[in-house]
Amino acid sequence: MKVEEGTLLWEPSDQQIKQSNMYAYQQWLANNKQLHLNDYASLWKWSVDDISSFWETIWEYFNVISHHPYQHVISSTSMPGSRWFKEAKVNYAEHVFKHKDNSNPAIIHASETRGKQEISWQQLYQDTTALQLTLKNIGVTKGDRVVSYAPNIYETVVAFLATSSLGAIWSSASPDFGKQSVIERFQQIEPKVMITIDGYQYGGKSFDRMAIIEEIQSTIPSLEATIAIPYLHADTDFSNLKQPITWKDAVHTSKPLELTFTPVGFNDPLWVLYSSGTTGKPKAIVHSQGGMLLEHLKATHLHLDLDQNSRFFWFTTTGWMMWNFLVGGLLNGSCIILYDGSPSYPDERFLWKFAEDTKMTVFGTSASFITSSMKKDIHPEEEFDLSALKNISSTGSPLPPEGFQWCYTHVKKDIWVSSVSGGTDVCTAFLLGSPTLPVYAGELQCSGLGAKVESFDSNGNSLVNEIGELVLTKPFPCMPIFFWNDDDGMRMYHSYFDTYRGVWCHGDYIKITEKGTSIIYGRSDATINRGGIRIGTSEIYRAVDQIEEVEDSLMIDLPQTNGDSITPLFVVMKNSKPFTDEVKNSIKNNLKTHCSPRHVPTHMFEVKELPKTLNGKKIEVPIKKILMGESFEQVMNKGSLINESAIEYFINLAREWNSSV
């Protein structure tokens, strides 16, 4: 069957619906609030029409522990500046350890250098307690910053939980981040303690980071101590680091201890995340303890359907907000699954084998991983036992309809495929899945409960079945409380509220359908506009990536003074196959058929690789600015790239073009 956008691929059975957490919540609303909201559309509408009542029911439904009662759910519905549950005092980690007596594993973890291990809730509790005492002895208290330069391993989760239990503020960078990227992030927030490893392995290759760590530490005078994890080598010498304490000593106890929780204001900081830093220093985005607590409870339990029997995996690094979201699975008593390493080492089938070995129920990944498995003709359903798997979730970029179809054809016929979209700015997704809704190819199932997502035209009119700017027209608890060192709030204001007054503008193009699903078309500032016909880059990539020989692609729209535009397409070929006229003609024909004749590129170039951020995203806008003549230094922070050398091609191309004008 030829799948198209909007093709119905799957529907939950009545039994699946009635066994879901979403259905249980609806029944609770009926029994306790006399709210009979029998379908998702009416539930969502109530949640955004009456955001105060909705979030108060989330508070009640999840039995949020507060050490001081709140007076009002929200201070004001104007944005920015809304404050939620102002008087309440909570602690994120306290809600994780509601489940400390759970007999199921808390964490399953593995890496390229470590075999699969299961961690009990009791061990997680004891290690967190011991590390909390170590942090206390160093002098860490509420509001202090603890930073991590460590991968997606068990110790990093323990470090986060111990930090947040004290009301201290967490921040992390993945060890594959370059020196300057880490310095530009951590210098801003002046941390007291650093958690670090000595090095890591990726794709079978070892990367020693000790010299880089010493350089990073030399630029951060606020650091008072280092908790060092011998990860690459068992006998690493950490003596040159600031006041080193080995992990073994940091979690050693001679007797059982009790974990204590420091209550903090609902709107006090939990962690600092960072924008990609493609222009200037990365924005240090601060989220609240309470906002993240409520949102992660809602998103993971209701939308992802997690409970104490779930095994929740997302392929992520500690430098991406999906790591924070993954840790949020612990709030439901779910077992979270961690993996550190390459998804294609020792071979392209590794993660599917890992899904079998860990009996994961939710497989979180990127759209690019799914499309890569599809292009490499992998057939997980034939090779692996995926009987435990209930859900495949995808984010990072739009999942094309063919990716949806591949999951049902080659992974599992009765599976719930959920494409989600949000971002670092809110450390969650606005657009999510629901276990009670059908799945349509290429479409995100629903807007999240409590998230008033709309599509706006340039005049601020709400659109249906038309592409517009993704906006939030009502406050959302996990919006940033502030940017670090943005004392007057103007940097945050200009980031989200400049386009439409009092409305959050996210920077993505979206179409919301009459049935409540949505389609993301890529970043709105990277849209392709030929002759007044605008199209999202995701549609371009969908058409180009259908060419078997093509590995990856990127298109840029360069406006010209005559009102027209140049649209170069950059193509990475698979397995070094030649970029022949036949391939070029196939690309042109696909774009004519799937997009329009106007969106056939004016130029086509073969490149060895595309520059991508540390989170693996294509950098369309900075490349556009470089090709339009802006200097590299103006538009790009080189340390924000995972493959710095890839940008040189575009810098040289810009010189050629601009010298010929």
Strand order of the largest sheet: 4-3-16-15-17-18-19
Termini separation (Å)?
A: 49 Å
Could you say what the CATH topology of the largest domain is called? Rossmann fold
Cα Rg? 24 Å
Just name the CATH architecture of the largest domain: 3-Layer(aba) Sandwich
Alpha-beta content class: alpha/beta
GO molecular function: acetoacetate-CoA ligase activity; ATP binding
Domain Acetyl-coenzyme A synthetase N-terminal: 40-95
Domain AMP-dependent synthetase/ligase: 104-475
GO biological process, one term: lipid metabolic process
How would you sum up this structure, described in words?
This protein is of the alpha/beta class and 661 residues long. It folds into two domains: 89-518, ANL, N-terminal domain (Rossmann fold), CATH 3.40.50; 526-660, ANL, C-terminal domain (GMP Synthetase, Chain A, domain 3). The protein is built from 22 helices and 36 strands. The strands form eleven sheets. The protein has a seven-stranded mixed β-sheet, sandwiched between helices. Strand 3 and strand 4 (117-120) form a beta hairpin. The chain is globular.
Give the gist of this structure.
By secondary structure, the protein is α/β, with parallel strands linked by helices. It is built from 22 helices and 36 strands.
